[in-house]
Amino acid sequence: MQDITFIDGGSLPMPEGITRKWVETAAENRDEDEKLFSMVREAFRRKIDVGVHVPTYPQFRDMIGQFLNIIKDEKNCYEPYVLKEENAKILELEIIDEVAKQYREETGKTLEVRVCIAGPTDLYLQAFGATGYVDAYHILALDIEDFIKQAFVAAKNFKIKVIALDEPSLGINDRIQFSDANIISALTVASTYARKQGADVEIHLHSPLKYKLVCETPINVIGFEYAATPSYLSLLDKKVLEDSNTYIRLGVSRTDISSLIGIINENYGVNVWKEKEYMQKIVTDLETPNVVKKRLETAYSVLGDRIKYASPDCGLAFWPDQELAFKLLENTAKGINEFNAEKKKQGE
Predict the structure, then answer these.
(1) 245: phi > 0 → left, psi -120 to 50 → alpha, else beta; which?
(2) pTM for the full model?
């Protein structure tokens, strides 16, 4: 059995005293690089330190806006929405390269990284809404390919292990006007280059309802939110995954913070927002390493070695603070590592 690799969703709560708007402005204007770079590098180091095997660059900006703002800027394009490849850059990859360089100097190993990019469907819905312009959809898929190409250029001191396309709307948004063939075509355009570079390409879905469609593309990892919705497991047919050589990224720790707070409120008869000392109960009572391990065991009994990656369900941008978020990542790491150790022992 191959060990299950721990990856994270990318986003984190803002450091105290810094707003998301400040980050977006600093990334656009590039007039406070020292403060911005320091913040991103520190968060990235902490992901490594708490045990994320393949960390995602820290995301402090709006996922769709981060890419769409570049695409919609005329100076970055040959014509509307048609990006010049050299302008399709993810600033955070430039920032984390220094951390990866230090990691290699300290460990002698090359750090593997997950790069998250907004998918063509979610980009399209933000840009054009519920209309069905197939040509524009295709152009956005080509733009994503450009961002992926530039990501590999930026990876001087790290290796891109996973390219993740963020497509939460697939399977849950009834505003999507495209046929399955259109969606397969767009996802194929967006994922082919990365697969040719030897990277896994993950699609991050909230629900796996459309997973069979994804199995018809070069995308070889399907990620979904299992921890909060265990019933999603019943939607998957292991044989379909095996026949298409598709793997699963399983959400094994819950990130739906409002629901978790509601459980603590109910269990202890408190208002966590007023009695904030109870906030820690989320990671000491609910999302513990043992709970993570048991979720993996249940899913593994159904999907077996089709599970390649595990992670929190989603990003952690809306968690109350970074300390709680990093504690969840640490608990998730421990649960996955304990699962791997037990499986290895059973196989001896």
Answers:
(1) left
(2) 0.94
